[in-house]
Amino acid sequence: MTAATAELIRKDYRLTPAQVPPTVVEDLDAAEKAALVAHIKRLLVEQDATLVAHYYTAAELQELAEATGGYVSDSLDMARFGTECTSSTLVVAGVRFMGETAKILNPEKRVLMPDLQADCSLDLGCPVDEFTAFCDQHPERSVVVYANTSAAVKARADWVATSGIALELVRHLAAQGEKLIWAPDRHLGAYVQRETGADMLLWNGACVVHEAFKADGLEKLRAAHPEAMVLVHPESPLDVIAQADLVGSTTALVKAVRELPATTFIVATDNGLFHKMQQLAPDKILLEAPIAGKGATCVSCAHCPWMAMNGLRNLAQVLESGANEIMIDEAVRERAVRPIRRLLDFARQRQQVVLGNNDA
Ligand code: SF4
Predict the structure, then answer these.
(1) Which residues line ligand 1 (CB under 6 A)?
(2) For a pocket test of ligand 1, which of 92, 95, 115 has the largest count of ligand atoms closer than 8 A to its C-beta?
(3) What pTM does this model have?
(4) Cα–ligand 1 centroid distance for 320 (angstroms)
(5) Which ligand 1 atom minimizes the distance to the CA of 95?
(6) What pLDDT, on a 0 to 100 scale, did the predictor assign at position 292?
(7) Residue 45 belongs to domain with CATH number
(8) Per-residue pLDDT averaged across 296-312, rounded?
(9) Are residues 23 and 110 located together in one domain of the fold?
């Protein structure tokens, strides 16, 4: 078999450090926190609202979601939960594309977000006009976009993928002889191409958090902790991925910490995930994989600046005021829902196969 190649487009769509906001974590004393939590619990009931939070958001938000019948997970699972939830309002604590995905799948629901400025470097690095023009130059290729994109970019795609299902999906498409455009994450795209051998043209964007993990620092940390297992999210550079004992989505990394026999893990992903890992496996030791620079010199310091924009204060404010509602043009929504539904159907079918095998 001839190995196909991944070709990275020349123009660089990664953000410069100056384009990345500082990571500012909400600072509340215990009394203020308790008062806000009680207030938000009342508002969620009054507003018939359910809180859905991403693993990278603050521990208080995750705990509040779980205590009030909401949900904490990765982006694919958040989208799935949103379609099954019966509340008339979804409050999405995460980044903007997650709120948009919830609205695309649930147009009849009101979708609110604590902060509409909570974006993502991958989404920001994939402007729809340039992306559309690029796709139009390659009509022979199917367009696969990562979930971390705007509704308008999804509307131009044939498929949406998440890190949890990217390998399976691309393998499936490659087996049918399809050539692909992959956007926007160059690192995840390079990893998927290496694993599947698919013919892929890669958009040149990156996640500011995962791109900052450094292979040389990781080598030193591994040498100091030879007993540790290394867990890496595939948005990280290939030389970091090369040192991993396990490469996987946020959900896969959480599962690994809980289920693998090792007691120490070096983890290369947003450190917001450590809350869920520690909650499920309190006896395990978690070490942060090294990043470029420390303190004032790191860009994101291993915590997404946009995820950190979600807090208890702005969550209470949007529930009180109804502000920050996600609105999507209906024509865009109708086009964007197709590749997302294809993803959810694909995920469901694969899950059925897995369950079928287990049952047999
Ligand atoms: S962690 Fe990276 S991929 Fe996730 S929202 Fe932040 S910038 Fe985007």
Answers:
(1) 56, 95, 120-122, 148, 207-209, 270, 304, 306-307
(2) 95
(3) 0.93
(4) 28
(5) 5
(6) 75
(7) 3.40.50.10800
(8) 86
(9) yes
**Domain containing residue 180:** 6-15+123-208
Q: Residue 68 pLDDT more than 60?
A: yes
The token pair that represents 75 in the structure block = 């982006």
Please count the other Cβ atoms lying within 10 Å of the Cβ belonging to residue 345: 10
Is 279 within a domain? yes
Note whether residue 343 is domain-resident.
no
Q: Which atom of ligand 1 is nearest to the CA of 306?
A: 6
Regarding whether 27 and 105 lie in a shared domain, the answer is: yes
For residue 338, is it within any domain?
no
Q: How confident is the model at residue 296 (pLDDT cuts 50, 70, 90)?
A: low
Give the position of tokens 């379609």: 83
Angle at 265 between CA 243 and CA 26, to 5 degrees: 110
Last residue of one domain, picked from the residues 208, 233, 257 = 208
Q: How many domains in the chain?
A: 3
Residue nearest atom 1 in ligand 1 by C-alpha distance: 304
- Residue minimizing CA distance to atom 5 of ligand 1: 120
Q: Are residues 113 and 186 in the same domain?
A: no
For residue 275, what pLDDT is reported? 96
Nearest CA to ligand 1 atom 3: 207
Residues 246 and 231 in one domain: yes
Residue with CA at minimum distance from ligand 1 atom 6: 304
Sheet of 6-8: strand order equals 6-8, 200-202, 180-183, 142-146, 159-161
CB 185 within 8 A of CB 207: yes
Amino acid 329: pLDDT: 98
